[in-house]
Specification:
four-stranded antiparallel sheet, alpha/beta, 341 residues, homodimer, seven-stranded mixed sheet
């Protein structure tokens, strides 16, 4: 498997991980309790239909049950979509999340890559027609929304719009940005959501999508039963109802994003505006992402070297917003690095 | 999704589950402890390569690391194989595990079904050529090995042999039956193994396959990264090393299978010889699987009605071997049922 993502911390113990964009808040007490008493859930086959969870999400979002599909993380859904829909051509902006391209390649789709403009926005005039457009919304690794008006994208000549909203829960007033409100009228939309970022469940894998019931029916034929494990199901159900956790998270991101950006700017690094919980950073002259990553790892800090994102290079790193204690360490370590050279 | 499997216990609380063929022994203490202290594993991306686990299995089985692939349960691997290899035609015996057919249908393979003979053995003379043969070894739901000599199957005209050894860990002297010893010389073999039966991890999903490295390379292209969750990885690794649990399990199955078969025979039901941890039962005249299932559910016992297995009918049920206390309840409940009618 040819990829490097954030969170590759094998062999690096006790490191502070700024490289994978997962919520750093402690697990709420009721989640901890629920988890600890769930051992018998390991033994039982999970509900292949995720019925309870689908009920909860359906009523929260006001989307019909038949328009919701859970799977083993939202990345599993990307592969499932490619496998079932088999688009002949796909539109991928760059830089963006690398799995769109990897999955499309595996399924032999013709890949049309479109470079984002210098503000990392979709150059609308350059859009070609394609069976499927991938839109990371907000975009990973740039952190921004790639289009000014969500409605505008629907005029573009694509059969399906795969809108990956993995990071939208971190966005302030996300309902103004999400494509969910457009879904009722626009059945070409396939909207991906995950429980592995805002709800920090990257290790247990669970995500879902919202799509037309005909699409869901197609996808289900290719989906192995029991693809969502039982622990993920019960934790996700409880997490959705955790209002306090959500509020605390948004407050943390709001405050700490400012703190980090200020610190980075004082060091002469450029932070790109971010709608979500991570920041794309352009290093100042004389620094390379590989070198900065290497130096920080020595201090127990892991960041994402962005040089392998197609459309970026060794001037870029990505950092996830963490707690003040961690963020302070990062800025401190970067300051030290800058003063040395 | 159109299927009924064992273990569908939604809405039936506190039932004794004889329908899903999962080890009923309590979790070993070290597994319990490991699980309870693993909450931070939920937050971290799992190792996409399952490196540690692959090391352990590689050295245990004497198979190269590059010939082993882990995924989200062995059923996920069945879908992955169909997706990557895209066999034009497949050979499926009946009755057998229904997911071979479901996955093959989804991937548009031509399905050649071959009815097992009256002893539930492969009628070798009827074998046609096909791209892929599915062999459930031992077979679910019949519990037996479908062929006298494992070697004999390799003379048959198939490009790939998918050998599903999901239940082989329960077999006495399994090394005499497993296809693993043949693998070094025979690269058409794809051998599936799981951690959700013998190691009771059905709820957390983990399985692997052994195949030629070229096949593994193909499969990896279509496999989403992080498809195996972190909790499954650490539990599986510890379970493999649990020698006592394995011994206890085999001793239990040996003893309790005899107990159940004796009880069933006394009631006039026919048990088919089983090499593994479940028993296919032919009801005596005047009883139907649906009725027996319904009556037992009222007593808090769930069995597998086998009428929806293609090749079986309403005269068949399947029961999993559980602990003496549970098995006694089952036989008692069946006795009551028989005396009533």
């Amino acid at each position: 498997m040819d990829f490097e993502h954030g969170g590759c911390i094998r062999g690096i113990d006790g490191v502070i991980d700024f490289s994978s964009n997962v919520n750093p808040l402690p697990f709420p007490e009721n989640i901890k309790r629920l988890f600890k008493r769930s051992i018998e859930t390991l033994r039982k086959y999970p509900d292949p239909f995720c019925s309870d969870l689908t009920d909860v999400v359906s009523s929260r979002l006001g989307i019909d049950r038949e328009e919701i599909l859970f799977d083993n993380g939202s990345v599993a859904l990307i592969y499932l979509i490619l496998c079932a829909i088999k688009p002949e051509s796909v539109l991928i902006f760059e830089p963006t999340f690398s799995e769109y391209e990897r999955a499309s390649k595996a399924h032999k789709a013709k890949i049309k890559k479109i470079r984002l403009d210098e503000r990392f926005m979709v150059p609308i005039s350059k859009i070609e027609s394609a069976d499927m457009m991938f839109l990371c919304h907000p975009n990973n690794p740039t952190g921004n929304f790639l289009i000014e008006q969500r409605e505008s994208i629907l005029d573009l000549p694509c059969k399906y719009f795969l809108i990956d909203e993995a990071f939208i829960d971190f966005v302030e007033h996300e309902e103004r940005f999400s494509f969910l409100p457009l879904f009722k009228k626009e059945k070409r939309l396939i909207i991906l959501r995950t429980f592995t970022k805002f709800f920090p469940l990257a290790g247990i894998r669970i995500g879902y999508l919202v799509a037309d019931r005909e699409i869901i029916r197609m996808l289900k034929d290719f989906k192995p039963p029991w693809s969502v494990n039982g622990i993920a199901i019960i934790l996700a159900k409880t997490f959705i109802e955790e209002e306090t956790f959500a509020e605390k998270t948004k407050a943390l991101i709001r405050k700490e994003k400012v703190y980090l950006m200020k610190g980075l700017s004082e060091l002469g690094f450029i932070s790109y505006p971010s709608a979500t919980n991570f920041i794309l950073v352009k290093l100042k002259e004389g620094y390379s992402s590989k070198e900065v990553k290497g130096e920080l790892v020595k201090k127990g800090i892991l960041i994402r070297d962005c040089s392998n994102f197609s459309g970026l290079d060794e001037r870029f790193i990505r950092i996830c917003v963490r707690t003040r204690k961690d963020n302070k360490k990062l800025i401190g370590a970067l300051r030290e690095l800058c003063s040395k050279s």
